[in-house]
Structure formats: C-alpha cells, structure tokens
Design goal:
heterodimer; A: 292 residues; mainly alpha; two-stranded antiparallel sheet; two-stranded antiparallel ribbon; globular; B: 360 residues; ABC transporter involved in vitamin B12 uptake, BtuC; 64% helix
C-alpha cells in the first residue's frame, strides 16, 4: 500500500514546493496591493521560455542567473506598466488590468514561440534519477522542498529584520499612513514584485524540470492553484502560503493516486470555496478589518 | 417629455429593425459562408453573453468570473437534449448510445438551457454571494472550473459524452428564418437583451444599481442585499446559459474543454471595452471584438511583401498581440470604455443622466 502511494507522495511534495514558490509571489502582492495578480502565472511561464531560449546559446552557469534577472525585470515592468497607473482606481479596474496583462503576455508568448510546445532544457544534476525506497524519481523532487523551505526562511528573515522588510509590513498594514511616514510606496511595491518574480523564476526551473515542455498557457493552472494555496494559508501570510501549497500539492497527487485524475484540478477549487465560506482568513491569516 | 421618450423608443426600434433587415439583406447577397455573416452571428451570440455579464458586473457590482461555467451548462443542456435520436448511437459511441432516449424541440431545449444554468446559479449563489470583490471573483472562477471537470467526468459519460464532442444537434443552419441563418441568433439575442433592459429599468434594476454604488446605503434604504444579489446572479446566469446554447449552435460541435476561464476573460474584456454599466456599449463592443479578432485584424497574421520589402513582424499570432495590446491601452487609459455607463440612445442628453432613464 505504502509502496504504491510513495511515488505520488513524492510528486506531491515536489509539486507543493513549486506551488509554494509561486504562492509567495501572490500572497506578498495581495498583502500590499490587495490585488490578485492574474499575470503572475504568466511570469512563471515566461521564465520557462527565457530558459529555453537562453540555454540555446549560453552555458548553464550564465543562463540560470540571467533567467532570474530577466524574470525580475519582467515583473518590475509589469507592475510599472499595468498596475502603477491605476493606483487610485477602483479595485475592479486593477483586476481587469491584471487579466488584460495576462492575456497580452500569453499572446506575446504564443507569437514568439509560434504556439508550439518547447522542450525545456535538461538541467544537469536536477534531472538525474534517484531511488527512494521502492520509488524512482528525479533529484529535483527532493531538492524542491528543501530549496523552497530555505528560500522562504530567507525571505521571512528579510521581511522581519531588514529596513525594506519593515517597510513592506508597514505598507501591508496601512497603505496611506505608511506613505505619510515617509515610506516610498512605489519602491516597496516594486520590491515586492521583484521578490515574487525571482521566486517564480526559481519555481519555474523546478517545475519545468519535472514537466519538460513549456507552452504559453501552461502557467495558468499552477498560477491559480498557487493563488488558492495563498488563500488557504491565509492571504498575506508567507508561511501560510507555503503550508497551503504543500497541502494542495500532496492532496492533488493523492487524488490522482486514488484514480480521480479528472478531479485533481477541481479539488483545489472545492478546497478554495470551503475555505472562503468557513474560514475566509485562511489558516494563518490575520482577521481583516474588512468583512469578506 | 413622455412624448419625447415614445419618439425615442420608436426611433430605437426602427434602427434595430433596419439593422436586422441589413443583416438579412447582407446574407442574401453575400451568402451564408461569408466572413461578415459569420462575424454577425458570433457577435450576436457574444452580445447576449456580454450583456448578461454586464448585468452582474456593471449593474450590480458583483465581480463574477464564472460566466464560462454557466455557458457550458447552457451549451451542454441544449446539445444533449436536441441531438436527434437517430444520431445517438454515433455521438455516444463510447457510452452505448447514452441514457437520454428522447429529444426536445429546439425552443424548449433553449429555454431549458437557460433554466438549468439559472438553477445551478441559484445553488452556487447561496454560499458564494456572501463573499466580496476579489474573493467572489476567484470563487466563481473556481466553480466554473469545477463544472468543467464534472461535465468531463467519465461516470457522467452516458449523459454528457465525457470529454468527447457533442455534435449533430441543430445549428443555425436548421433555424432559417426567411431563408436566412443570421436572423435566429439576432432575434433570440435581441429579445433576451430587451428583457434584460426592461429588468434594468425596473425597480429591481434600480436596486441593483444602488447595491453597486453603495451597499451600506442600499441596505439602509430597505433593499435586501442578499435577495437582490441572488436575483441578479440568477438572471445573469439564465441568459449566460441561453448564450452558451446559442454558442453551441454557432459552433456546430461543443466540448467542455473549450469553456476555459479564457472565455470568461474574453467576455469580461468586451464588457469593459463597451463600458461597465452600458448595455448598448456591451453590444457594440461584442461585435467590434469579434470582428477585430476574427476578421479585421486577420491580415496581421499573414506575411506581407510590398514590392521587395518584407513588412516585419507580420506572422501567425501577431494579430492577437496587437489585439491584446489595444485592449490593454483601453483598460489603462480609457477605463470608461466606449460608452461609460451611458446608453447609446440617451447619450446626447447629459442633463438626463441623473434623471429618468428615457427608454423603457
């Protein structure tokens, strides 16, 4: 019995880690801007395509940092172009802008790639096979949870102990007041997008190493699931997002193990709705002043 | 004043009648398969869907992203009940001909499509409508995804044909009016939009708008928030269901997998381009949107050489890039869309904005 479940469990932990890296980007942006960044999943996909094109001409040692830099730049530009002009607009407008940005990025990627699935480059070592108990898996599924936890711990330290982290916390509590206290809102928001995009870039490397092909819309579903993870864990809470992501990743794969593959996506949304109805603040979320 | 409004109503109806005649005439001249007629048919279908979404998002202020799910229900109910009995064996080839061994008349199936979507909306609305803004959006989006997964579930195969195509049901080609395929979608869509207009201009419509503008104030004025939100949601989904059925008729085949969230986003963008809270805006925007994406921007997809000069950038997919860039510009810089929250027929009377709506 356990032997049968083990590979699914490993896959679940690995997928959970990948979702976690995306979910952190969602939860940070939501914590500060109260915006569901619908384009976050596309940033994740774009990171995949950057890797495909860059490794075609550059060695791996240069490609990996370059991909992260480019993804970060993309996240930065996205915020400046699509969200900054709407800072004072109603929330609905910003959300529509997010959807529009996501649409534009998907179409752009379709145009550049000609709509064909691209083979993701084989990352050395990560793609090697390894034997755990009776299950054989790729190194990446073991590296993912470790790397995820390490990155998230680093991020939490950053938020707790640095000046920019303090500014982020202040902005997420009260946008206007922190502005009055002399915090440069725009640079804090940009920083949030930069961190989120960098984590999405790392997440995409891990994700596509296990899935091996990149298509323009591949990021939509992991993106939505990561968002659900963020809501599940309590939006705005980084550890919550990570735990939520692992739970979703594992549960999804266990459902696949039980033979209900068609429902593995739907399950995530059922979970979302249950959470929203019974505990809208999520596992670790602070009670919001606004009634949800 | 009253006479004026009657005059305006008359002019509006006349214009609509002329447009219908124009569409009919165009089809008799250009033939059914011309691009214009295809765009007109698809545009009419999407106009209804966009207006139904506008009722929810623009008039009641409920940001719902579940439209694709309800369209899917409508499309499936229509298709399942109108596939001719003789064709069942071929369509449900993996499920022994399915378990539904009867077929309904087209109009009944169309109504049933709307009712099924409305019933589902009533059930989903009970829990979901307690949520606000982006939580509501993501929850409805989630429900749409759940519906899509359930419909494709293998165990429901004898009814829904699983993840296989539904086909051979009557399309617009079998609902010819005066020898024209374009009039049926125009008529159904037109009647439905007319009903939505009447609802918007009724007391209920005013209550919806009050909720949009300020929930607390609306509640203080004695409007039952939940009751009206639920009503708006159910009505919107009823018409989304009919719209879905019409879309199924337009396409000729229907498959659950095509009703992704991208479809909802398309409709949402139409609503935004037309103006949140403007029925005529949504209608115009739908036709423009369909015409641009299907027809007018096609040339961007084909490489073009003028003399010996190869125009750069033009190749497959460029159309959608330009298209989405234009949408982004509208969203960022022309947030009010084409008509804002005004209607085409009272746009020249700015003083009446706060007064009575002119058209019935």
């Amino acid at each position: 019995m356990f032997d049968k479940i083990l590979p699914y469990l490993l896959a679940g932990i690995s997928v959970g880690g990948q979702y976690a890296l995306i979910a952190v980007g969602y939860t940070m942006v939501y914590g500060i801007l109260r915006l569901i960044n619908f384009a976050h999943g596309d940033i994740f996909t774009a990171a995949g395509f950057f890797m495909v094109y860059i490794t075609a001409s550059l060695p791996m040692g240069i490609s990996i940092p370059l991909v992260i830099v480019l993804t970060v730049a993309l996240g930065f530009v996205l915020e400046r172009v699509a969200y900054k002009p709407l800072r004072t607009a109603p929330r609905m407008s910003v959300m529509i802008s997010a959807i529009g940005a996501s649409y534009l990025m998907q179409n752009l990627m379709w145009y550049v790639t000609g709509g064909l699935a691209k083979q993701y480059p084989v990352l050395p070592w990560l793609s090697d096979s390894v034997q755990i108990g009776s299950a054989s898996t790729k190194v990446v599924s073991i590296v993912t949870p470790i790397l995820t936890v390490a990155l998230v711990v680093a991020l939490v330290m950053l938020i707790k102990h640095t000046k920019i982290g303090m500014a982020m916390r202040a902005v997420s509590v009260d946008f206007e007041t922190s502005q009055l206290m002399g915090i440069r809102i725009n640079s804090v928001i940009s920083m949030t997008f930069i961190i989120g995009s960098a984590l999405a870039a790392v997440g995409s490397m891990l994700f596509f190493t296990s899935y091996s092909t990149v298509t323009p819309t591949v990021g939509a579903m992991p993106g939505l699931k990561a968002f659900v993870a963020a809501v599940f864990g309590g939006i705005g809470s980084i550890p919550g997002a990570v735990i939520g992501a692992f739970i979703i990743g594992i549960a999804e794969n266990l459902i696949k193990a039980a033979g209900y593959t068609a429902f593995s996506d739907a399950f995530t949304f059922v979970l979302l709705i249950i959470v929203l109805l019974f505990k809208p603040t999520g596992l670790f979320g602070e009670a919001a002043a606004e009634k949800v | 004043m009253k006479k004026m409004s009657k005059l305006r109503l008359g002019i509006c109806l006349l214009v609509v009648a002329l447009l219908y005649f124009g569409a009919w005439f165009a089809e008799s001249q250009l033939g059914t398969n011309s691009m214009l007629i295809t765009v007109l048919k698809k545009g009419a279908v999407y106009a209804l869907i966009a207006v139904s979404m506008n009722l929810l998002n623009g008039f009641t202020g409920l940001f719902s992203l579940g439209q694709a799910g309800f369209m899917l229900v409508g499309a499936y109910v229509y298709a399942v009940f109108t596939i001719p009995l003789k064709k069942h064996a071929a369509v449900y080839q993996y499920y022994n001909g399915g378990i539904i061994q009867f077929e309904l008349p087209l109009v009944v199936a169309l109504l049933l499509a709307g009712l099924a979507a409305a019933l589902l909306a009533a059930l989903i609305g009970l829990p979901v409508l307690r949520l606000k803004s982006d939580y509501l959006a993501i929850a409805t989006l989630g429900f749409a995804e759940i519906i899509r997964a359930v419909v494709q579930w293998d165990s429901l195969g004898p009814i829904t044909n699983g993840s296989n195509l539904l086909k051979t049901y009557p399309t617009f080609n079998s609902t010819k009016i005066l020898g024209s395929t374009v009039l049926f979608p125009f008529l159904v869509s037109g009647v439905c939009i007319g009903i939505i207009l009447l609802i918007i201009n009724s007391t209920y419509g005013r209550a919806f708008k009050a909720i949009r503008d300020d929930e607390v104030a609306a509640e203080a004025m004695g409007i039952n928030l939940f009751h009206h939100k639920e009503m708006s949601f159910v009505i919107s989904c009823f018409f989304a269901g009919i719209g879905g059925a019409l879309l199924a008729m337009f396409q000729g085949t229907v498959q659950a997998n095509s009703f992704k969230s991208a479809m909802t986003y398309d409709v949402l963008l139409m609503v935004v381009i037309g103006g949140m809270g403007s029925v005529s805006g949504s209608v115009i925007a739908s036709f423009l949107y369909i015409a641009c994406s299907e027809w007018w921007l096609r040339f961007l997809d084909n490489p073009l050489t003028i003399g010996s000069f190869q125009v750069p950038l033009l190749r497959s997919g460029f159309r959608m890039v330009v298209f989405s860039a234009v949408i982004m510009i509208v969203v960022l810089f022309f947030r009010r869309g084409i008509l804002g929250d005004k209607e085409l027929w009272n746009i020249r009377l700015p003083k009446q904005k706060t007064g009575k709506r002119v058209k019935a």
